[in-house]
Amino acid sequence: MAWWLSAAYVVAHGVALVLLPAHAQTLSYSFLIGAPLLAAAACVRRSLGSEAVVGWVALAVGMVLWAGGMAMNMYQEVGLGNADSTPGISMLLYVLYGVPLTFAMAHPRHAPWFLSVIDGAMALLLGYLFFVYTFSFVTITDASDAGVDSLRRMFDIENLFIAGFALLRWLASEDRSRRAFFGALSLFACVYLVVAAYINHFGSETSYGSLVDLLIDVPFLVLAVVAWRRSPVRPVEVSRRLALGVRAGSPLILAISLLVMSALLVRAHPMLAVAGFAFATLGSGLRSVLMQVRSLEQQDRLDVLARVDGLTGVANRRQFDQVLQAEWNRSRRSGQGIALLMVDIDHFKVFNDRYGHPLGDACLRAVAAALAGCATRATDVVARYGGEEFAVVLPAASREGVLALAETMRIAVERLRLNSPASVCQIGVTISIGVAQLDKVTTAAPGELVAATDAALYEAKRQGRNRVVEGQVAAGLDEDLDR
Question: Which residues 6+ apart lie within 8 Å of 384 measured at CB?
């Protein structure tokens, strides 16, 4: 339906020119202004609820700028009756229409606010350089033939630049919403490139109001239709290397544009050109530094997530294994002892079945917090060993200190009270603890220590739970003491 309506728009444009030749110029301008405004409206509509909202809004701004350029042409030719000159402000708006499109291609997905500020500042400076460069050839009310020719070449370069980079972003887009946006931008940019090249180089001698104007409608109506229709985007296999390369390099688009415009202004405005070079370099450098800092912060967060149990907030099994081996090696070198506690929540499976998994999770979190609150030394590590079982690594700890800490942990958990929505009474929980301690480490692996601690935990549960039992590592024998 949308394609038929766009075709009807072109037909209506042509019919108006044929049936009302006396008003052809005014009517044609109206259609030529209306087409990009329709495209802008479609882009704004598409931006609602889209993850590519920045791109669609930027594209809409570009369409409004282009319509503004055509409106200034209409004012000069129809309002002032001067068909022999092209207003400089019109040429400026035609040039500036590419700035928000360039911003959209350079702006990365889910960019933090500070990167958006840098990109926005670079885009504004790019627009100002376009302004200065444009008025190097034209005045606010007139443009010489030589100036228009120079700007035509600039339009060709700009249009080719936008089409090329839009296609590259489309080919490298993995996200469906971004792929849909860059697909629409690529289609528009390619059609506009062809139409603009023909109009600027072969149809420029024809005044507005002829049937050639119908061609100008086409790219904007194509964009309006594509933006309006929310056609499903098929998943496409994209080279990961290409996607990452384009994503990393796309922010350079603005910097490259600034460098090119600065180079064009070197002779006429050397100080401004130097400022452009400096801003492009510093902006790109600052952007890279901030991105690197953000990447390092994300890496730190991922590292923490890889070492911490997501439910309880204490170290996970992987971190426990690494810490135990590291402390074991350190104790072996230094001659200091090491101790290990194995902690099991008593009757946890029955607890889970009776009170439900949400309260079971709350129980795990509460026990983990109680254990961590007792292990106050910086070197002590509390970890979730698996299920309802925890482990505590205690480097350089005496036998008396270890047994005292284990008893403190048992009492701390015994005093816990959990609120259950299914019971008016608060629910208590207890733990059993197995303890093993070595004054001197002689072997390369802590397997014997783990085995002795696990055996002590088993004995604590066998004796009735809610107690501390010490296991002996030497000769593989356990000497059990109730605490």
Answer: 309, 311, 312, 314, 315, 316, 317, 320, 364, 368, 390
Rg (CA), the chain: 36
User: Parallel, antiparallel, or unpaired for β 338-345 and 381-386?
Assistant: unpaired
Q: Which domain holds residue 472?
A: 317-476
Per-residue pLDDT for 483 more than 60? no
pTM score of the predicted model? 0.64
Q: Is 158 annotated in the active site?
A: no
Q: Which of 158, 388, 459, 470 is catalytic?
A: 388
Q: What's the order of all strands across the beta sheet hosting 468-471?
A: 381-386, 389-395, 338-345, 431-438, 468-471
**Mean pLDDT throughout 159-176?**
88
Rounded Cα distance, 134 and 262, in Å:
13
Contacts with 39 (C-beta within 8 Å, 6 or more apart), sequence order = 60, 63, 188, 220, 221, 223, 224, 227
Residue 82 lies in a domain: yes
Last residue in a domain, options 304, 332, 348: 304
Domains in the chain, number: 2
Q: Helices (DSSP H) in 75-175: which residue ranges?
A: 88-96, 98-106, 113-134, 145-171
Q: Are residues 349 and 293 in the same domain?
A: no
Alpha helices in 135-205 (DSSP H): 145-171, 176-202
Length of the chain: 483
Arithmetic mean of pLDDT, 191-202: 89
Chain centroid, CA 149 distance in Å: 42
Which pair of structure tokens corresponds to residue 332? Answer: 């072996």
Three-state DSSP state, 386: strand
How many CA atoms lie within 13 Å of 208's alpha carbon, on the beta-carbon side?
A: 28
User: Residue 475: its pLDDT value, please?
Assistant: 46
Do residue 119 and residue 215 come from a single domain? Answer: yes
Residue 481 confidence (pLDDT): 36
pLDDT at position 456 is 96
Residue whose C-alpha is closest to residue 40's, from 231, 227, 183, 229: 227
Tokens coding 24: 């052809």
Residue 70's pLDDT band (cuts 50, 70, 90): very high
Instruction: Encode pLDDT of 128-166 as tens digits.
Output: 888 888 777 665 455 556 666 777 777 888 888 889 989
**Per-residue DSSP letter, 310:** T
Determine how many CB atoms are found less than 10 A away from the CB of residue 282: 12
- Residue 274: predicted pLDDT: 94
In whole angstroms, give the CA distance from residue 322 to residue 11.
74
Closest CA to 33 of 2, 1, 78: 78
Same domain? 402 vs 460 = yes
pLDDT in tens, 245-286: 887 788 888 888 899 889 988 988 899 999 999 999 998 899
CA distance 460 to 454: 10
